[in-house]
User: Fold these one by one.
Assistant:
Number 1:
Amino acid sequence: MFLQEIQNELICADSLGDLIQMEVHSKPFLSPGNNWFCSKISVLTPEGDTHLFPCYRWVDYGSSLVLSPAPAKFLFQETNPIVQKQRKRALEESQGNFGWRVYVEGLPQTVDADKAKDLPEEVRFSFSKAMDFDRLLEKELAFLNTQHLAKNTEQWKSYSELDQVLCEKRSLTYEYVRKHWDEDELFGYQFLNGINPMMIQRCSKLPENFPVTEEMVKDSLKGSTLEQEMQNGHIFLCDYKILDGLMGNVHVRQQYLTAPLVLLYNNPEGLMLPIAIQLMQKPGTENPIFLPADLEHDWLLAKIFVRSAEFALHEVDFHLLRTHLLAEVFTMATLRNLPSMHPLFKLLFPHIRYTLQINIMARNMLLSKEIGYFINFAAVGGDSLPKLMRRATASLTYSSLCLPDNISERGLEEVPHYYYRDDGTKLWNIIDKFVEGVLTHFYKSDINVQRDTELQQWIREIFTNGFLGSDSTGIPQSFNTMKYLIKFVTMVIFTASVQHASVNAGQFDFGGWMPNFPSGLRKPHPKQKGQTNEDTILETLPDVGMTVNTMAILKVLSTKSTDHYPLGYFREELFEEEVPCKLMKKFQEDLKSLSGLIKERNATLELPYTFLDPENVDNSVAL
Ligand code: FE2
């Protein structure tokens, strides 16, 4: 066969017969290192048919790749022994490239790589993303170093001194938080629409270790009773018991952690307001229940301790574990078990971009026992970090990862102004409809789900390596029906995109103003009322070094690079069949129309909830 290269096209005069696969060779060009990124190859046969061969991989210097035609195929549909063999070989190669590693016993397993450079090039950051990330990091580090702030262990002298540290343009939300951080309304609002909307649950019975009396809350309930309001479904609880017994970090400076209980009242005006706070789990005379009617600084300091517990739980459990580490599990299982022609590989491909690299960087920059952010600047650093991660992993359930189930388990169906729930549920339904359309088109029947051995191995690895083989998680170990498969895949895409956006995007907006999101506190929790003033609070809050390092990290973690892709954007042309292509278009239209509705709603809000506007939701955990 004679092939001639003309402007990236290869022309062939001979009939090609059945195209079952294509082999691409990279000839040495000038010098090693001149690798070639091959997006796709389109073949127009002399008979006038076009065949697409997606690639989207780097062809190494002097090596070759085998490509498959774009039409998706299951293994059981494959009759050609050459292709069957190649399919098996491709998976073996992938399993060699992406091995599992026990990062910490009791946590989801990770990719077996120490540095991003150890990963195959196609799963690493693009040149522009790497440049953006490095530039931002350098800018933040330069700022810390030139101002001699990074290692400063002095306390802030005043809030206005703290306010002067941020010279750049501030977002509307940052300014709103700075102005209102000490108000009950914003404190309660953040449990619904802040960066961790996952803690709050309806309370129909007080926990036994939280002895709030009717007398304590009668002023807050304005004539009603706690019993009555619990029956009416207006009382809510945030219980940080998972932090109970964890010691604050002692590296560099002594820090303190609490495990608070917060009682909230959803009042007739629809506001979610805190009505009682107990900072430790065990009730007692040295663990008073703080109330809004207490002296201003007593109440404010109690709320600050809650916000600091929130920092630990948000970053470690709801952000790191439940989005980053789970997305890594889904990425690994996909790369290791689904060949590129598998329909589920094609469906999930946009949702695994950059996840392995960002997680390796997080392990090196944030979690490292020696130089990581947590050990140096957060109360949950040190010995408590792996303990909390293990506890959080042990508490993982499948239902908590599925938004509709999670909302009903927490009893939050009726609470007003819960924009995370409203936008998230619409997004869940849009993703579910898209996934259902694509998977139903390919599988057609439950029998085909059962006989898809690659799919069954995919879920087995997720269960075993990700959820540590724990039956109590409720994670499926195999799939028997399309219905269960569709729900699981919806959860995978939702977790990597929507859920991550909800806990990631606002980190600087809500956490940049340190008193609203202190990474650790430097004094123990108050054991008596009436002994706190503004100086006590400034002594308790993070010092200068903790503050500015946390600000820099939150800034880096919530600033998108130019190379990011919103949900519904399909950069790679992986499907060529008419049905999935039409479904992709409809998916994009649904997302666009939801974006319009969210913008309309936000225009009426003093503090717009923008995190789940589809335009702001990235396809994957990449930040
Ligand atoms: Fe993130």
Number 2:
Amino acid sequence: MALVQTQFKDAIGTIVLSHPRKHNALSRELVAELIAALEEFRSAGARAVILRALPGAKVWSAGHDVAELPEGRRDPLGWDDPLRNLVRSIETHPAPIIAMIEGTVWGGAVETILACDIVVAVPDSTFAVTPARLGVPYNVSGMVSFMSAGSLRIVKELAFTGSPISAERAERVGMINHVVGADELESFCRDLAQTIAANAPLSVASMKEQLRVLAGAKPVSPRGFEKVQGLRRMVYDSLDYAEGIRAFKEKRAPHFVGR
Ligand code: LCV
């Protein structure tokens, strides 16, 4: 069964997350279909892409598929993790990607939409950065993604509380581009895509890649990187990490002990 649906018309590609039973959790299977759709659009010469859930979705995406996270002793968000591959595919896709948001967005799905180029949401959407709720040590490039989407103060509040923020606040702090009514969301995003598609695709693609390279250029010394990796290993080797994953699977609140 396809976990995403795709459409390609007038040089605009549309990808619809279509696994409502698992709230579009970013499983290895769903991510593989998503990346394949982006490659298909790249070959077809797409000039803009819209990434959305099914109309009226209560949950846009519940984030990383927790069932696929290791239960300890291994980096849960290593280079080849599906979420990492998805974010890199979005960031390096030549055409701008518009994230069209209805419903709630969780964890790695927040990073996914922030990797998109433009985010348009309906007023009752929310966004929750969840590593602290699960005991997960988020990875370095993921933190850079968050830092480039909002002020350090906002990122700290989102990361340390794990609490959802509203679309209205996300727009006010510059984390998303537009908040529009549910009845105009589709036409708003289509008009945006058509405007982009009418521009010079080489100029647009080169500016997208320039902005990616420049925005990601954070000077980190080898020593600094190794320190961060050591901190992350301490977390994913901890009792709290194993507890966070187990609690989610057992549908109970986690009890963190700080080691
Ligand atoms: C697997 C799921 C998921 C899911 N994975 O419906 O950013 S990090 O570091 O945290 C990163 C590691 C990450 O992204 O982690 C995931 C972060 N996501 C979350 O914390 C959201 C987890 N989901 C929820 O809180 C609820 O599912 C929401 C509030 C989204 C919807 O609640 P609701 O009561 O409507 P259920 O919880 O009953 O979910 C329906 C089915 O989807 C599964 C869930 O286990 C259930 O499956 P079963 O019916 O087989 O039990 N599901 C939901 N989220 N991230 N599976």
Number 3:
Amino acid sequence: MVVGFLQSKDPRCPVSDTSIKKFLKLGVQMTLENELGKELGLHLDGADHVSYQDRTNVITKSDILYSTEPLAPDELAAMSEQSILISFYAPFNPTNQMDTLAGVKNEVYSMDMIPRTTLAQSMDVLSSMASIAGYKAVLLAAEQLPRYFPMMMTAAGTVKPATVLILGAGVAGLQAIATAKRLGAKVEVFDVRKAVKTEVESLGGKFVEVEGSKDDKDAGGYAVEQTEEYKQKQQEKIHERVSNADVVITTAQLRGRTAPILVTTAMVNDMKHGSVIIDLAASTGGNCELTQNNTTIVHDNGVKIIGDSFLANRALIDASALLSNNIFNYVNTFIKEGALHIDGENEITIKSRVHPPQNN
Ligand code: NAD
């Protein structure tokens, strides 16, 4: 059986020396599209049963085909019968390319649909990348802020520590708290999920309380839309904390919807000159009203707003290593005794299949 990997515009490499060794132990052959990994200095074709081939060969000869980016319609049509495609189709995202799958005969699986369960943790690419992004967001902010992060007592005077406000304490937010604390900043955190308060406090963050939030135990750990009354109270509290902060890192997402606006223009107007906002939710609309995706803007009052949801790519080597581990762990669930095996009872397989649609 052949497991094939395609190149994408995405700079992360989906295979590593380690993941290739693990695949080979399963008794499969591997084909990699020419140049895959070479930009990162990886030379992956040393072993028997691993070969570099052109894109068409990889598409037509693989039983399990992986591509970080969705395939073009003619490429989908060229896949061999019975083979499966593993990619990222983000069906909950309004910009998804699900319509390109209409009429496709092969089964298609989307790694962003893997359930956020304990069993699936080792395959959870969203968490791997969010964690790196949270870390890099803090380093970027520290670099851009025209101030120190830690308190400094010097002969020339004492410098107060910077205050970092983190909005959203999911995977990225928690990593951002830990990183900002290590750099000596004062860290304040807000999240609609009250459940994260103890986690925030155990990392040394101060949890900003707003009474009356709504949790939904059926939402799989994700935040849910809040009442208007709660949103009003939340806005007032966030306004107060944003005006006081030197750095604001926003990570709040609502699965399947545009990101909630947490930082309004009025709040930015009240921030100090030189303060920095890093918006990790930029690609789904942003948590700051002024955010422009993939752009850095400087507001009239000198506040810098950086809209970037792909900060994980700034740690390309580790992002690639974690991605390739996640992919191996997921693809492994499709291999039994060296052959393609689709386990119709496996919750991870069922939930991550995006084509044919689940109701067919
Ligand atoms: P996410 O990217 O969907 O959102 C980031 C954070 O923003 C979340 O904590 C969310 O509550 C918060 N948020 C949303 N709206 C907000 C608002 N209006 N104001 C303030 N904060 C707001 O979250 P994520 O990092 O993907 O994690 C989602 C959940 O899944 C979490 O409960 C996380 O612990 C859980 N999770 C579980 C596993 C696992 O068990 N395998 C893995 C990863 C994440």
Number 4:
Amino acid sequence: MPDLKNRVALVTGGSRGIGAGIAVALARAGAEVAINYRKRADSAEAVCAEIVELGRKSFHVKADVSVAAEVERMVAEVEANLGPVDILINNAGIAQPRKLEEITELEWDEVLTVNLKSVFLVTQAVIGGMRKRGWGRIINISSVAAQTGGAVGPHYAASKAGMIGLTHSCALNYVRDGITVNAIAPALIETEMVTSNMNAEPSLIPMGHFGSVDDVASVAVMLAMNDYMTGQTVSVNGGWYMT
Ligand code: NAP
């Protein structure tokens, strides 16, 4: 099996939850890992410290990934500190549980911008370098909401379904460049996003319990190591949606 030694990973929203789990798992597999966060510097620092404990380099960078200028600065800082990005995990996201009738235009735009536009922006910022080097892995954290509607609302479901279309388009466009692009569709993973959502009940899940961040992280590492899987959506959902 290949490992990820000498590869540089960038995890957006890597300061906690699923992103933090993926960041540490990538470091265990040999990668140097940059942690992006928006608000919680302490949490990002703690994840970096855990990665350094594993003998890998790490770096944390504050940036709102829905803003193009911040994305450009973030990628430049990561490259200056760790080197060019080989593995991009588009994980940052927000979920505000709402019914369609309750969603304001501002809320719709915020969810679509943070969850979907950010994936376009960060991918655009790293794709040129990946193509030049002839190797890259892009892993987009979508959701079961793209497949079933989920437990958050239509704005969230639309943003997560959009990520799958973007995944297919990028996978096809860069299929001859040594770059694979895949999505993971999790549900319901025990993080603050889920424990703060009154609609997210373990009873929604056929297995009857929430998943752990490690359940998702192990799939992300598999996708980072695999050369021949591209354009796929891997479901990690306790049986909620079956393909
Ligand atoms: P979480 O615990 O709420 O963590 C969200 C992370 O995203 C935090 O690190 C946060 O950073 C960061 N973030 C939010 N907005 C950002 C922005 N504009 N720029 C940069 N970073 C930003 O969520 P989670 O449950 O780990 O979810 C991670 C991803 O998985 C999300 O895309 C979510 O939609 C998806 N997902 C989760 C589940 C689940 O069951 N948990 C299921 C399906 C999909 P700060 O804390 O520093 O602000």
